[in-house]
Structure formats: C-alpha cells, structure tokens
Batch of 2 targets.
Target 1
Amino acid sequence: MTKLWGGRFQKSAEAWVDEFGASIGFDQQLVIEDIAGSIAHVTMLGETGILPQADVTQILQGLAQLKEKALKHELKFQVAQEDIHLNLEKMLIDLIGPVGGKLHTGRSRNDQVATDMHLYLKARVSEIITLLTTFQQTILQQAEENIDTIAPGYTHLQRAQPISFAHHIMTYFWMLARDKARFMESMKRIDISPLGAGAMAGTTFPIDRQRSADLLGFSEVYANSMDAVSDRDFIVEFLNNSALLMTHLSRFAEEIIMWSTDEFAFIELDDAFSTGSSIMPQKKNPDMAELIRGKTGRIYGNLIGLLTVLKGTPLTYNKDMQEDKEGMFDTVHTVVGALKIFEGMVRTMTVNKSRLQEAVHSDFSNATELADYLATKGMPFREAHEVTGKLVFTCIQKGCYLLDLTLDDMQKESALIEADVFDLLAPTAAVSRRNSYGGTGFEQVKEQIQLAKQQI
Ligand code: ARG
C-alpha cells in the first residue's frame, strides 16, 4: 500500500507494524472535525492567494462529498493509511485527483491533529455543560417536592441530626454547579486554534492563522507554534474535571445504592433504571448506580494515563501523543452516558416519605436539640452535652427514645428541663429551628432553592 509520505523509503513496513502504529481505529471519531479543519485551511489558502481559487473550489467540493459520506458512515478507513488525517487526504486525492495533494500546503498533521482535538472537545464539553444543567434541574425538582420530607442526616454513617431531604440532595446540586463552572472555565483553553503552527516552527507560506481560526469559530490562536503542537493541557484539564465530576456522581451513586436496600428503603428506583437477577426472582438491583460508581475508576485511570504519557516528552510533537485519544474518547462517552443515566434515575425515583418519617422517629438524632435546650437555659454546653448523653443512655437501657421519656425521667438528670422540651424534640421542630444561613431549616432550604434557580 503506497504511503503519502513514502518518497524517502526503500521498503514498506509489514502490516502488523502498521497496525501497531495506526490510530485510525479510534481517531475516526474525529472525522467531522478533521474535514472542518481542512475546509477552513483550504479556504484560507485560497483567500490569501497561496492556492488558485479553481483548485480550492475543487478541493472544497471533494471535502463536501467526503463529509456527506462520513455523516452516512460510508467511508472505508484503512489501517495502512495510519490515521484519520492520511485516510481522508488519500480519499480526497482518489476522489478529485492530484490537485487534492495541494490541501496539505502550509500544514502538518501535528497542527491538524491538535486542531481536531480542540474542535472535538469544544463541542463535547458544551454538551456536557448542557447535560449538567439538565441534571441540576432534575435535582431541583426532586428537592422542591421534598422540602418537608424529614430524613436522618448522617456523619460517620451514624444518625446525626434530622434534615430536610431536599437539603440533602441539594448538596449534589452545588457539587455539579462547581463542576459546571470548572468545565466552563476550561473552555478558555480549549477554544484556541493551533492551526497554521505547521509541524512546529510555522510555515514559509503567507498564511492567515486568524482567518482559519475565525472560520472554525475559535476565539484565539496559539501565540507560539511549538506550544500549539505540543500542548495537551486542555485534555488533561478535561480529564481532571471529569474525574472530579465522576467522584461526585460516584458518591451520589453510593447513596442511591444504600438508600435502595431493604435496610434503608429510603427510595425506590424506577424499574426502567434497575435490573433483575438471573437466579433470584425477588431481586431488583441498582446496576446503573453501581456501574457509574465503578466507571469512576476508569476515568481516574485516563487522567493518570495522560499525565504519565506527557511527563517525559520533549518538545514538540512525539508519537507518544497519539496516546491522548482513547482515554479522552472514553471519558467523553462515559461522562455523557453517566450524566444521562443519573438524570433519569433521579427523575424517576420514588422517595419513600413515610419510611423516612419513621426513621427519624426511631433514633437519637434529636439529642442535639435537648443539649441546645439546656444551653439556652443557661447550662454550659459541655454540661448540657453530658446530661443529654446520660438521658440517651437511660433510653438505651429502657429500650426507648428521648420522646418516650417522662418529664420525671428527664428531671432526674436536670431540673432545668420543663414540659416545653417535648415540642422541641419533635423532628419537624429540629429541622425548622435550624434556620441559620445555609442550614436545613425549611425556610433556609426554600431560599437555597431560590438561589439555585437564579444561578442555573
Ligand atoms: N495520529 C497522530 C496522532 O494522533 C497524528 C499526528 C501524527 N504526526 C506525525 N508527525 N506522525 O498523534
């Protein structure tokens, strides 16, 4: 098979060697971006007079045909042509004749591949930002429906204090808000054109880099041609932002999995987002949440993989950089899939309000109320903590909860306790009275939801 760069070679590599070096198996995902880059480049070559307009017209027609075929998945890629860039160039030449060979004037695969990656990530990151917003809206909706749903709040996975269930899930809203801000911020470094950097030193042709960047919709051009072809920071940043997003999704997934157990039974996932067992007929498994938790590992791997690829590469382009792609594609597909699945899972889940209600009535998560009550009556908080702890112990011995004690029982530990204590010990009171800014008090949660709606 003839190579487009075959001139200085006396013999060709064997097929299995080509196979090892080829990236076409995965970089064909850049087909549309690669054609777009070529269209911009050749248009600029025509406008600057580097190529005659007649040639440009022919090349543009050829590229348009290739694009049409690409969209219909009709292009037949060859391993012998190594990568997407050489495959397309070969197809163009086969289609329109030797004039197709003029496309590569003043360009190298090094600036070409970098351009493709910038274009690809720009589109996919904005898709991810949109998916994040949709997911945030779904969380907001579940939160609005569950402001009054009281649930146990945990620290150390031990019952801590009663909270509004809305307050709990809004935590994930804010995590996603930070993720979104990070992806948006990273756009500044994705939205830059390397095109025209050539192999690494620029070109002798009087090209107009700003023009090709404008045609591709880039906001800026790289100021240094060597930086343009060797920079992969924008991909590392994407992987990093994705890794942190997946951390958040994985934590949420873990809670979904726990809450779906018979032991918790706080929520029930919709059948459409659950799976059964091949042997145990009663099973309804939260596979999707588990997979998202599991896939998080892969995304961390992709980040560490690319950092490691880059750490020893001298300037400028090295073939090592071809290894930037699979991890990036995998991360894009995984993050997009995980966000869509998670959104559906949260939108369709049923919150078991009565079970949550029952849970907060059968625990000691109102113990802080009693300590605070005594402190309000003038007892030093440390002492109030001790007294309450003793009353909790009394309950444990009796096999009951604080609200089951009589006033008499309570007064044995402190004479400051009066009948009004029982109202305060009710879980609803415990939640509604936590009205400090950002607290779980119903009024605060409503304000928080308002704030979230303004930000979204
Ligand atoms: N397939 C290559 C990659 O993904 C394209 C750039 C190749 N450039 C080169 N000089 N070999 O990195």
Target 2
Amino acid sequence: DSSSGSSGFFSKRTFPGRVPAGIGRKSLRIVVTGGAGFVGSHLVDKLISRGDEVIVIDNFFTGRKENLVHLFGNPRFELIRHDVVEPILLEVDQIYHLACPASPVHYKYNPSNVMGTLNMLGLAKRVGARFLLTSTSEVYGDPLEHPQKETYWGNVNPIGERSCYDEGKRTAETLTMDYHRGADVEVRIARIFNTYGPRMCLDDGRVVGNFVAQVIRKQPMTVYGDGKQTRSFQYVSDLVDGLVALMEGEHVGPFNLGNPGEFTMLELAEVVKETIDSSATIEFKPNTADDPHKRKPDISKAKELLNWEPRISLREGLPLMVNDFRNRILNGDEGKGL
Ligand code: NAD
Ligand code: UDP
Ligand code: UDP
C-alpha cells in the first residue's frame, strides 16, 4: 500500500534538483537497470549525450563493462554492480527498467523479472520517479492474432520452457499496472519486438547474433525447424528512440515497439549471406519447444500517440553490426561479463 513506506527506512524523501542541462530543460537523474547490456548501453549513450545524469545498475549477468567503458570518467555517469532482486536506495527522476536475463540461453537460470521489477517499482513509489518497463512481444506467446495489437491478450503456455520469461514479463506488466493504479506511480510499458545491432551478446542464442557470428566464423547458419517461422527485426537505435519517446510522452501504454518488416528465418539467412559473405551456407537443426510460428507488431498506436516509427530496414541495419561482431570475434572478446 502506498502509505506503508512513509516512516521507515524506505520512506519518501525529496532530493535536490539537478543542474540545468541547457536552455529550457532541467537535467534529469536517470537510472537504467541492465544498462551494461545490449539495449541498455545504447540507451545510456543517448541519455548522456542529451545532457542527463545516468546511473546504471547491472550485475553483469549478460552485460559487459566494455559496452560502457567509453563513459568511464564522465562525471554524469555512474556504474553500480548490483543485483536488482535486492533492494536499493537511490534518488532519481526516471527509471528505465531493463535488467533481465533476456535470451533463451540465459533466462531459464534466473527468474529475476518479478523481484527486480517489484524493487524498482518500490523505488519509483518512494521517490516519485517515472518508471518504464521493457516488456516483450513474448507476452503474446504463440499468437493467434496476426499482426499483434496491444489489445491482444496472448497465447502463452504457463508451464513451458520459455514460461519463466513470458510469464515473468506478464507478471512484471501486472505489477507495473498495480503500482500505477494502487500507488499512483507514473509508469510506461514497452513491448519490445526482436531487436539487433552492435553490442548484442555473442552466442546468446538469439537468431541475428547467431547467424552473423556463424558467417564471420565461416560456420553454417543454424536454421531451427523448417525456417518458415517469421520474426520482425528492429535496429537498436530505432528502439532507443521509441523508449525515450514513451518515457517522455503522456501515455502509459503498453506500446509495441518493433519494425513491422516480417522475415522467415530462411529469408533472414539470405540477407545475412548477401550482407557478409555470399559463400555462406545453412544447416537445419531441430526447433525449440513452444517456438512462436509468427510475429509482427502492429505499431499504429505508437505511430499515433508517440509519433514514433522505425526508420532503419533490416538490409540497412545488418551491415551496421558487422564490424562490431568481427572485432569482438577476432579479439576473442566474447566474454559474458567481467
Ligand atoms: P541484455 O542481456 O544485453 O541486457 C540485460 C542486462 O541486464 C545485462 O546487462 C544483464 O547483466 C543485466 N541483468 C540481468 N539480470 C540482472 C539482475 N538481476 N540485476 C541487475 N542486472 C541484471 O539484453 P537486452 O537485449 O539488452 O534486453 C534489455 C531488455 O529488453 C530486457 O528486459 C529484455 O527482456 C527486453 N527485450 C529485449 C529484446 C531484444 O530483442 N533485445 C526483445 C524484447 C524485450
Ligand atoms: N524498495 C527498494 N528501494 C526503495 C524502496 C523500495 O528497493 O527505495 C523495495 C522494497 O525493499 C520492497 C519493494 O521495493 O521490497 C517494494 O516496495 P514497496 O514500498 O512498494 O513495498 P513494501 O515494502 O511496502 O512491501
Ligand atoms: N533461430 C534459428 N537459429 C538460431 C537461433 C534461433 O533459426 O540459431 C530461430 C528460433 O527458432 C526462432 C527465431 O529464430 O524461431 C527467433 O529466435 P530468437 O531466440 O532470436 O528470438 P525469439 O524466439 O525470442 O523471438
């Protein structure tokens, strides 16, 4: 309840205003949980470059210090090694909550979605910060509606192998709305569709990263199942623009943030081949359980209310991640954290 925190250790406090960031806009103090990860580090870059103060909370489960090393020494940047399943006290204006084991290889080991989200909502409530949850298109499960609109409730197996991720995010959305309705916390919910770009975790099982790394290593691309399942791939800078537009806007959401361009895995393999190496090959492997057959966002709501839409097509975006992957593979710098 919203009054319970008024006297104890986590009681509501005020904190000094920020130094102005420039004409007409106060500099904000912003927490990004999971900020050492793929999406988080790009978001941090954008927030720092527009003049805000950023605190990253990350336990380096899949994130890497290298993703942020260019910001070390910047007085507006701070990095805290911390697991969000434990409470934390900070005084901030906005919370972008991204921390989460987000790939099939990792998420089954750490159902941290729920506790981490609860703590960050508790923090938002105490300091009066605005809270943004990065949910996922996986809340739609193996969708029976195509493309998916935000009004669709989804088709999720509650006891399957990927349930801790899907259901964890669904619970995180529920908690977010409960804190909004019950404790008046200002919240925003993004449902992110498959995203790719530089700094993606190598070898974490996500398809774009797998295919690009495999072709650079001169290995065949592993197509799971018959390769006719579809996904819609969004370049990371488009996503970051959408997250900021959502945080700054007046609407709670949920909002689909994704690129509606839809590709089968065989088509994706073809684009990777054209982009990196025309001699690349594919091999078929058995598919994972409960793999959604198709996925494509309906983004009319974000277009209309956030004035946002992706700008970078798959053919434009893929080449932008190849150098980063090549360098990391050549340097053997494939670590899962430091
Ligand atoms: P990522 O694995 O690169 O980043 C996640 C970050 O969270 C990592 O830095 C990791 O170390 C950190 N983390 C994990 N558990 C933590 C914990 N308990 N405490 C503190 N830090 C923790 O993944 P990403 O692709 O950047 O995903 C970011 C967010 O976006 C996630 O919430 C994910 O569910 C969501 N999302 C991503 C995609 C995508 O395609 N990339 C799609 C849908 C949703
Ligand atoms: N919390 C936190 N930082 C804060 C305030 C709260 O980590 O600044 C955690 C707190 O430990 C609790 C969770 O957020 O586990 C939910 O907090 P809330 O105040 O909503 O719940 P309560 O403590 O009243 O059960
Ligand atoms: N996939 C594939 N080869 C791989 C990795 C994944 O064909 O090496 C397929 C996977 O079966 C799924 C699609 O690519 O149909 C997207 O998988 P990913 O794990 O990237 O994202 P998600 O399933 O969460 O959308």
